[in-house]
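Regression test case RT-17, inverse folding.

Input:
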């Protein structure tokens, strides 16, 4: 999904309420996530799902801003559900993975997941990730980066050391600057400050970058930029 698709509700004092759907086949995990999320006044858990098919159906019905998606579920798995949700532009998807990194992570990357977090994520990091993704940004747990770099090579085969990526030649100087910021994990607000450009201009550059790089998410673009040496991975 492109940035800026959040349709979070606005309460009486103008604050944004981020609507979240939990998709995991373990009720205890869903309960734990709900407990952490509902500790924040600006986040509302609007529904749950125990498998991928229910995740897609409930996302269509409940229109959350963010879906927290487990990858290994019975029936329709999290990868297929992520692909369907992303294809229909229903919500942003944040994948929850284990420390040893599920084999399904590369499939979720291809499917257009906006973020990847470990299931052991602390509450403050989870809340921050949900808010950032709802705002059209990307989140990537540092522990997941190396695996995603490897997985992404199967989507965009790496160039030889002598040849830069083909897409790089099609970027303007400003687009390269924005891409370096994305590769460093910067938010839109941080990019605005770093490059002294407006929020609207930042969103425009990000959208154009995704199109030129044939990426479906900021996460893909950030990983591809790191692979090309535009920024050091954490």
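Golden output:
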């Amino acid at each position: 999904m492109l940035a800026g698709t959040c349709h979070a509700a606005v309460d009486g004092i103008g604050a944004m309420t981020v609507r979240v759907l939990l998709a995991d086949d373990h009720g205890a995990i869903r309960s734990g996530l709900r407990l952490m999320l509902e500790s924040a006044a600006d986040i509302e858990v609007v529904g749950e799902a125990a498998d991928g098919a229910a995740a897609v159906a409930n996302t269509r019905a409940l229109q959350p801003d963010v879906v927290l998606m487990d990858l290994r579920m019975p029936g329709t798995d999290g990868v297929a559900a992520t692909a369907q949700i992303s294809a229909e532009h229903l919500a942003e998807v944040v994948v929850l993975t284990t420390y040893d990194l599920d084999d399904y992570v590369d499939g979720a990357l291809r499917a257009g997941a906006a973020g990847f977090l470990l299931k052991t994520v602390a509450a403050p990091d989870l809340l921050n990730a949900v808010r950032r993704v709802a705002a059209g940004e990307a989140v990537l747990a540092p522990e997941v980066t190396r695996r995603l770099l490897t997985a992404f090579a199967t989507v965009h085969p790496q160039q030889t050391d002598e040849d830069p990526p083909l897409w790089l030649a099609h970027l303007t100087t400003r687009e390269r600057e924005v891409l370096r910021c994305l590769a460093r994990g910067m938010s839109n607000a941080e990019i605005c400050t770093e490059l002294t450009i407006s929020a609207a201009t930042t969103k425009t550059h990000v959208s154009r970058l995704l199109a030129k790089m044939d990426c479906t998410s900021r996460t893909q673009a950030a990983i591809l930029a790191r692979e090309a040496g535009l920024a050091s991975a954490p």
